[in-house]
Automatic annotation (TrEMBL):
Pathway: Lipid metabolism; Phospholipid metabolism; phosphatidylcholine biosynthesis
Entry function: Catalyzes the three sequential steps of the methylation pathway for the biosynthesis of phosphatidylcholine, a critical and essential component for membrane structure.
Residues the entry annotates as binding S-adenosyl-L-methionine: 139-141, 221-222
Positions on the Cytoplasmic side per record topology: 108-134, 220-232
Taxonomic classification: Eukaryota, Metazoa, Chordata, Craniata, Vertebrata
Name of the featured protein: Phosphatidylethanolamine N-methyltransferase
Residue spans crossing the bilayer: 56-76, 88-107, 130-154, 191-217
InterPro entries from the UniProt entry: PEMT/MFAP (IPR024960), Phopholipid_MeTrfase (IPR007318)
Species of origin: Oreochromis aureus
Length: 232
């Protein structure tokens, strides 16, 4: 009788094993043991970046300045029509601003290239597949930029709507059927591709800054209108 009672007690008691208790998912990141994380790759990445390099600082300033400049100037023109009055024509004023934007973007690309060449390459990125991935990104990015320009024209690309130069209808064909901002993301893809081709960790950082700057610019521009016309 005592043996049967003992067996019953064993059957009623919860089964125990040697497996560790599962983490409570509701605890979120508090359950993560950060001391066991392997940060070797991240540490190696950071070691290849010299944040005190003046050329890197210049590149970052150029990246942040460009979208700020064209958005501020375009909004100022939209409110005052001063540029149109100065040049005697909204078309001429728009073309002049577009020319300035092109020069600024050329300088931005130059400063980013200088910063990437000045800093160390990362052997982890010096692989054939990474190189060809960079080429593919640059081809795709160039396709987005060029096709966007052809679809919008010069004034449609360079803030013509702020000058009162409106398109007949919203462009919905390629590449705008892929993304609403092909000029921005095409440029970002180009910079990412350049960073991969050059095996440049600082290039990845600069590309991330470009993406953030464009994302802020898109939000800033979206407050002014409801995307009736794509701008660059």
């Amino acid at each position: 009788m005592s043996d049967s009672n003992a067996d019953a007690e064993r059957n009623d008691s919860p089964a125990t094993d040697n497996h560790p208790a599962l983490l409570d998912c509701c605890g979120g990141l508090n359950n993560v043991d950060y001391s066991k994380m392997d940060l070797t790759l991240m540490e190696a990445f950071i070691k290849h970046i010299n944040v005190y390099d003046s050329r890197l600082c210049i590149a970052v300033i150029a990246i942040l300045f460009n979208p700020l400049f064209w958005n501020v100037v375009a909004r100022w023109e939209h409110r005052t029509r001063r540029l149109s009055g100065l040049f005697g024509s909204p078309y001429l004023a728009c073309c002049c601003l577009g020319f300035v934007i092109i020069l600024l973007n050329i300088y931005r690309s130059h400063s980013m290239t200088v910063a990437m060449k000045a800093q160390a390459r990362w052997e982890v990125m010096e692989r054939t597949e990474v190189f060809y991935a960079g080429i593919a990104l640059m081809v795709f990015g160039t396709l987005l930029v060029v096709s966007s320009f052809l679809a919008l024209g010069f004034t449609g690309t360079f803030l013509g709507d702020y000058f009162g130069i409106l398109m007949d209808e919203k462009v919905t064909g390629f590449p705008f059927n892929i993304t609403e901002n092909p000029m921005y993301w095409g440029s970002t893809a180009n910079y990412l591709g350049l960073a991969l081709i050059g095996a440049s960790p600082v290039g990845l950082i600069l590309t991330a800054i470009v993406a953030v700057a464009y994302k802020v610019a898109i939000s800033f521009e979206g407050n002014k209108r409801n995307k009736d016309v794509q701008i660059h």
